[in-house]
């Protein structure tokens, strides 16, 4: 992936970060390096990966199970702002983006 400084500045603006010219230059190199590493991970063959980790004593990991969350009211009561059974958060993106 070809990452440019303008891409870093765009993401920083969306995140509400003010980067100096030097910070943007440094972050461009660092993020490009991370993205290169992630791309390299895409070439790893995992078809023959062992499904158990050493800390499980050789047993396969437990399956994840989904279940309804019965304490929604408690969670919403702790929120700074909620309504209609949902958390309310401030808008962070501009209209049309």
Automatic annotation (TrEMBL):
Which UniProt keywords are given for this protein, alphabetically ordered?
Transferase
Molecular function in Gene Ontology? transferase activity
| Pfam assignment, any one | GatC
| Matches recorded under InterPro entries | Asp/Glu-ADT_sf_sub_c, GatC
Tell me, which GO biological process terms does this entry list? regulation of translational fidelity
What is the protein name stated in its UniProt record?
Answer: Glutamyl-tRNA(Gln) amidotransferase subunit C
Organism, scientific name: Leptospirillum ferrodiazotrophum
């Amino acid at each position: 992936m070809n990452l440019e400084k303008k891409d870093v500045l765009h993401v920083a603006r969306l995140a509400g970060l003010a980067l100096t010219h030097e910070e943007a230059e440094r972050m461009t190199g660092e993020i490009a390096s991370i993205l290169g590493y992630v791309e390299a991970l895409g070439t790893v063959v995992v078809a023959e990966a062992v499904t158990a980790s050493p800390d499980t004593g050789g047993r396969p990991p437990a399956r994840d199970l989904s279940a309804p969350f019965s304490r929604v009211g408690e969670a919403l009561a702790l929120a700074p702002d909620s309504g209609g059974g949902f958390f309310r958060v401030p808008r962070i993106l501009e209209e049309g983006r």
